[in-house]
């Protein structure tokens, strides 16, 4: 029989940690949050651009294109890693973490709504700037000019041709994966484990073709800029609105509230600590 140390926080401690950090973010400076969310949108844009370039190299019109989707899934998770390791901001993860802070009464409901609004506004502006600079500036996806034009055109059409409710349900599944990635990142005490779990969750939603608000802010605005055969109405009404609703429902009602309910009781002798540098260990025995 031997003993090992698992570098992983308990679920209760992880909930307390995320709720506290989210509360600090919500109660902090509005301009700071806006800059963080602006940077988060930019990171999603550069990740989406890089993933789309790689995927377009394997893309064939009319084929199943499993290889292209797998290539996208391997590259895109780097965007969330960049956001988490730099401490910048992502609206979809905030729908869960801010809900934790609200349930713990670290923040008011008015501040909850206000800061979620600041978060998505900054993400939107950052992602659109990315679309203008990367897709508009490089012309890699520009119709009849760029090598990646067929890929982006077919991707944009596939995202905007589905019924409103089907798109929203896809977005619910997507943000469950994103919130699980954020949850798991905070649970890990080593960077390698954090990166692996983020790649697993984000790669899963990308491979499944699920809909993510901030990713689509970049991808579909890039499609508009690149003249990929979709209209403003297609992009915003047929995709971005239902995806926003689905992502928000997932983060608040499918992840935030159930987890907050499970761990609503404050332990009499909490072992939660604020810093990852503290020695927090979970011991287990193996025969």
UniProtKB/TrEMBL annotation:
This is Formate-nitrite transporter. It catalyses: formate(in) + H(+)(in) = formate(out) + H(+)(out); (S)-lactate(in) + H(+)(in) = (S)-lactate(out) + H(+)(out); acetate(out) + H(+)(out) = acetate(in) + H(+)(in); pyruvate(out) + H(+)(out) = pyruvate(in) + H(+)(in). It is found in: Cell membrane; Vacuole membrane. The chain crosses the membrane at residues 39-59, 71-92, 112-142, 163-186, 192-210, 243-263. Homopentamer. It comes from the Eukaryota. InterPro entries: Aquaporin-like, For/NO2_transpt.
